[in-house]
Amino acid sequence: MPSLKELSHKKELLSRGHRLCPGCGAPIIVRQVLLAADKPVIVACPTGCLEVGTTIYPYTAWKMPWIHCAFENAAATLSGVETAYRALKKQGKIKDDIRFIAFGGDGGTYDIGLQSLSGALERGHRMLYVCYDNEAYMNTGIQRSSASPLGAHTTTTPPGKAIPAGKTESRKNLTEIVAAHNIPYVAQASPGYHMDLMKKVQKALSVDGPSFINVFSPCPRGWRYPAEKTIEIAKLAVLTGFWPLYEVENGKYRITYKPRKKRPLREFLEAQGRFKHLLAEENKPIVERMEKEIESREKELMIRAGEGEK
């Protein structure tokens, strides 16, 4: 893995001047992922915040071959490109060693694009799918997705008389759904721990088959926090156990970062306006439920990584 000094001299493949919100986690993630790639890449990006903010016609922030596709079919689109590449390389018409990366938000990955992603994984295409998970449909108005956590305030789960505590369901565990496909490499990462993320990207791009990285992507607009706090929020998610960092390499689990001292979940909740209502005494049971779910997932992960007792 290159040092930070070496990375600072590497050419950026996502230009400045795009129109994503200040503090948006998505471009930070994209920059880190592309900096970790040491071979030419082709990128696919479905409709969403990232696509809309970086490709306002006739401009683009992408400095590589880039394909826009529909909300639901990034994995299918890129798998077709990867198949064409293999065919042309077999015919001797392409000699370059190229890698393929898709960037999709949680709406286009957890929900509407899940069938496309699952199909590409099952077929075994050599491509990396990166989900920038900002936990709601941010591009269309901050509506809840299946990635939205329990208790979240979204425009379709507003706390009030009907639902006092916000979203009533727990989030989908997409990382484990993908791991169940038995592909070579799966991981969870956070832009707050950039070297961990970039090492995972290099592993993912080196495997001969599909790979997937689910990356926590803070959103100042949807989560209601000051734009300059993005990396702080990204770290708090890890330090409180809300978003554990781990990888599944050829079926073997490994926890890649363990906080020396776990921070209280309340610190993570207090830092975001979307959870403000949970701090009220009457919603204390929801916070306790969240804490129990985090503890349960943590124990299960440790068992799978061979670090806990069944």
Keywords:
310 residues; alpha/beta; Rossmann fold; 8-stranded mixed β-sheet; 12 helices
Question: In words, what does this structure look like?
Answer:
It contains 12 helices and 8 strands. The chain is globular, with a radius of gyration of 19 Å. The chain has 310 residues and is of the alpha/beta class. The protein has one domain: Thiamin diphosphate (ThDP)-binding fold, Pyr/PP domains (Rossmann fold), CATH 3.40.50. Helix 2 (25-36) crosses helix 8 and helix 4 (74-90) runs parallel beside helix 6.
Output the number of helix runs: 12
Rg (C-alpha, Å): 19 Å
What is the residue-mean pLDDT, rounded to a whole number? 96
Output the CATH class name. Alpha Beta
Number of self-contained structural domains? 1
Share of β-strand residues: 5-15%
List the strand order in the largest sheet.
Answer: 2-1-3-4-6-5-7-8
Largest sheet: 8 strands, mixed
Task: Look at the structure and name the CATH superfamily.
Answer: Thiamin diphosphate (ThDP)-binding fold, Pyr/PP domains
CATH topology: Rossmann fold
User: What series of H and E elements makes up the topology?
Assistant: HHEHEHEHHEHEHEHHEEHH
Label the structural class: alpha/beta
Record field, number of beta strands: 8
Helix content: 25-40%
Q: Which term fits the overall shape?
A: globular
Distance between the termini: 35 Å
